[in-house]
């Protein structure tokens, strides 16, 4: 069952690190095509033959472009696997509440882009409130949650965050940063 | 969806700690009815209204009795929730390979006890290779994996370990301690 | 002996955290007058009667002003304790090599400000390459290093970083961010 | 200054790990001559040329023999370095209070063995309340504390534990496991 699993990584808070040097004020992504997912799956003692993991790019989700969203959706479409987990920044993973208006923001989001392809696959997006390198991170739990859901859910595009798993269009990112059910 | 979730804790490696004092050689469970599950779900930023969590007892799984297995199965049966996660020691969670014979050991196991009740519920058992208090623990991932599966899988009794989710009787604990698919 | 110890906290990488919410790109300091030093000394199981700890302010060391440097030096001067540890951002803790010129930068630094007071006290400055909230942080070690030195060294102003303890004017921060001996 | 530092590792709680497999109830030391000290000094970003580190053996301090204590003292005597840190189990690092009598126990201890050599060197013993592999460990702090003291203290044999540094015969391990000043 698990051999059918593909994990795609695209950066986001999940993979942010604290750079060393002088006069540092912003986060960075690690050099090389390396995601924290590798280390988490080692900690999880997951059998290497049970999954494939691919680094697509590392981008802050506030800066992800339409072209990058297409890269993700295209890879989901071309994958031989029918169960896919995508790690992604949380600001444009799915819809969010606009802090100014209190309503759903018009920002483009990756879940919608994937859903538009109407793939007959189970795709679960997850991310992080705190980077994997932090002691108090939610990355290990979230990746587990997404994989558990991806292995068991019927085809569709889902969000797995805050211990919640639901279809992408039934969830929003709130102003304080957590994901909640959303009755449109 | 998530409001339907009950988490039961029963000890095992998941909840073991390192005692302080003098002449210490064995692990202990924390004083009080407290499981590491609470801390992990806080780290996961899971909404409190999304689940109920109950501490049943804290026992090493090599010492769990038939009476204790019945406590677990009874609570699964009486629960109003239809989606249940059980944290449990790994030696008697499901069947294991006997290191002496290389065949499935005859030791009683909790998954079998729950399955015998033929409940119309989704019950997922999980545990840990390394206690939650360790830096390199698999508890956060495993609890996420079990919750993701419990929220999405049809009724049945499942094991969620090593990034694998499968019906309890299709999995064994190997001699080196990991869980693998098992064709009976 | 240890009752003579005062710990002053002033922010820096040591106390930086990763903020949650939307569109986050910079680090923050925790709300309230709270330093990670408290948590580290709890982990260290240090007896509360052995030290006093004071939060002076929380500032990125690239932004510390002359007025803030005076606050630190004044508190060292007024303290009844003769052994003092100061947690501080690393960019202006002592002198640094200018990445442009490869020579010692002219930036003001806090060690020089304290040393100018010619106090008959042992003052040890320390900081962090990675914030205390990170798994791979050097804060626990560095705070221990600084306290061990502060309890044992004769009066003077010292830097304790990278496992090195030396008089402040015999150390520089290098371009890659580590502290090394410097023959002026 | 720091080039004069030798670190000797001898096991103890500091280096204990949680074994995986089946029917596990006791702690183990890692296979190979490897101490957690290596990983901690990497986290501390300590310059490799600043110290030498030697693994002598890995033993629970309740089982250390007179012969093993002599190995430690002999190595301190033969070392070219004049500043030495020893990681050691806490039960026989120095004197302890006997839980039965409430008085100092007659158990042999390593600090006394080293002190009897009357070396003209600074030797600092440290250990751990929680193994280095635990999230809440005191090992990083304690190793820093011992190194800071070893680099600065005059010749003598010292204990560095619980944020305290003092001559070995002025400290005892209490019944609850912490180290405190002791007026003989």
From TrEMBL, chains A, B, C, D:
Domain of life, per lineage: Bacteria
Active site: residue positions: 13
Sequence ranges assigned to domain L-asparaginase N-terminal in this UniProt record: 5-183
Transmembrane segments: none
Binding-site residues, substrate: 61, 90-91
InterPro entries: Asp/glu_Ase-like_sf, Asparaginase/glutaminase-like, L-asparaginase_N, L-asparaginase_N_sf
Gene3D superfamilies given in the database record: L-asparaginase, N-terminal domain (3.40.50.1170)
Protein's UniProt name: Asparaginase
Species of origin: Undibacter mobilis
């Amino acid at each position: 069952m698990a051999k059918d699993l593909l994990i795609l990584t695209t950066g986001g808070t999940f993979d942010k690190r604290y750079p060393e040097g002088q006069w540092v004020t912003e986060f960075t992504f690690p050099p090389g095509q390396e995601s924290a997912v590798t280390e988490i799956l080692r900690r999880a003692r997951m059998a290497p033959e049970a999954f494939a993991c691919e680094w697509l790019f590392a981008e802050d989700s506030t800066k992800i472009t339409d072209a990058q969203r297409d890269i993700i959706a295209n890879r989901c479409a071309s994958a031989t696997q029918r169960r896919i987990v995508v790690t992604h920044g949380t600001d444009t993973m799915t819809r969010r509440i606009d802090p100014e208006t209190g309503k759903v923001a018009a920002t483009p989001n990756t879940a919608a882009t994937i859903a538009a392809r109407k793939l007959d696959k189970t795709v679960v997006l997850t991310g992080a409130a705190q980077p994997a390198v932090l002691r108090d991170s939610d990355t290990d739990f979230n990746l587990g949650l997404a994989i558990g859901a991806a292995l068991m859910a019927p085809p569709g595009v889902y969000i797995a965050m805050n211990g919640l798993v639901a279809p992408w269009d039934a969830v929003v990112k709130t102003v304080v940063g957590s994901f909640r059910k959303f009755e449109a």
